[in-house]
Backbone:
């Protein structure tokens, strides 16, 4: 498997999606990646959502003047849930008597599949543009049903459309479609957060703002928020499907990268292009090495290192060939310690795993360095 056919060979990528995760993981694995999956949210089954049923009956009893549909999965799920409650025909009639505004082409398709017709959809696929249109027209006294994305949190940004419409005088009916909660068992998410902190992942991907918010909430709960944010700012790449998903990170000054189109296939292609471009390549000891989250590529061969070896390698790479003392390397080891003999043992195992002992040079009585030729540094 060569680099052209497997551009993500050696990279380990975290996937936080709760929906279509297997499909996305397959797209990454086909490009050579190792995938770690930890759903960051749990989507509440719509048919079991008592609040959605209550709101649906309210809309059937008193149809809105305007209906705003924001997501295709949410709109389809709402119609499907209504069918389970025996309300599908009544809901379609109630919505059909209103002006239907769709946030983008995917939700437009879902509206038409329900044999309804939208009046307008912005080319920007932006809820903000829908809100701007309504506020410009005036909404005082109008009853407006707004299909929500999900529960808001301190990290889930975006214009609060419902509040803005209320302030403008509308009678707003929030429709809590596609609600989410944190995962019932956070073990996998906790482990992913720890892997980010330890820089054991090269990238972590997000396909919704709630997933970002949920991970931030959980990291805060387990006391790892600041270490996780440091890792995302300095080594682990945060990849988001689009600007709405990326917005919580922007609030926290975490750099993100995203594809030109907010689609799953585009996201996988973007990752396959972006991570190799960002990869560090170093010539040391007559070899070319490129460190990853869990391994090092040495002369185009994947060399898996134990956690201690990866911790040492990251420290040595960060110093770009300068001498690193045994005490500094000891502090970098998982668990630390107070015996520098542990560093000697870890270095020996690292050299063996690399298959190229000359890459890491011993500097007598000083420490270790990558055998990189630098001006003023002996090789």
Residues:
């Amino acid at each position: 498997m060569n680099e052209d056919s497997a551009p993500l060979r050696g990279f380990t990528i975290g996937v936080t999606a709760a929906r279509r995760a297997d499909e996305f993981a397959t797209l990454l694995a086909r490009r050579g990646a190792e995938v770690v999956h930890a759903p960051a949210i749990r989507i509440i089954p719509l048919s079991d959502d008592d609040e959605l049923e209550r709101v649906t009956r309210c809309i059937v009893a008193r149809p809105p003047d305007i209906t705003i549909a924001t997501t295709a999965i949410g709109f389809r799920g709402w119609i499907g849930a209504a069918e389970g409650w025996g309300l599908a025909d009544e809901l379609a009639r109630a919505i059909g008597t209103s002006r239907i505004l769709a946030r983008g082409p995917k939700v437009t398709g879902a509206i038409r599949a329900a044999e309804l017709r939208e009046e307008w959809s912005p080319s920007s696929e932006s809820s903000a543009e829908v809100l701007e249109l309504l506020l410009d027209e005036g909404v005082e006294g109008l009853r407006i049903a707004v299909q929500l994305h999900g529960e808001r949190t301190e990290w889930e940004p975006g214009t609060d459309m419902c509040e803005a419409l209320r302030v403008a005088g509308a009678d707003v009916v929030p429709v809590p479609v596609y609600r989410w909660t944190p995962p019932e068992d956070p073990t996998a998410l906790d482990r992913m957060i720890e892997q980010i902190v330890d820089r054991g992942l090269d990238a972590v991907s997000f396909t919704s703002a709630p997933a970002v918010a949920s991970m931030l909430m959980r990291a805060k709960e387990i006391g790892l928020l600041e270490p996780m944010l440091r890792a995302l700012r300095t080594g682990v790449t945060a990849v988001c499907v689009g600007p709405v998903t990326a917005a919580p990170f922007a609030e926290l000054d975490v750099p993100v990268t995203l594809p030109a189109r907010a689609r799953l296939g585009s996201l996988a292609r973007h990752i396959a292009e972006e991570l190799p471009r960002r990869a560090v390549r170093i010539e040391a000891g007559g070899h070319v090495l490129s460190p990853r989250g869990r391994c090092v590529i040495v002369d185009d061969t994947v060399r898996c290192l134990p956690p201690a070896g990866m911790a040492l390698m990251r420290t040595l790479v960060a110093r770009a060939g300068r001498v690193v003392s045994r005490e500094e390397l000891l502090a970098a080891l998982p668990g630390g310690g107070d015996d520098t003999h542990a560093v000697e043992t870890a270095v020996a195992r690292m050299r063996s795993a690399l298959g190229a002992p000359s890459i890491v040079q011993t500097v007598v009585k000083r420490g270790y360095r990558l055998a990189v030729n630098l001006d003023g540094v002996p090789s």
Summary: The domain at 12-40+183-263 is CATH 3.40.50.10090 (Rossmann fold). Residues 38 and 191 are 8 Å apart (CA to CA).
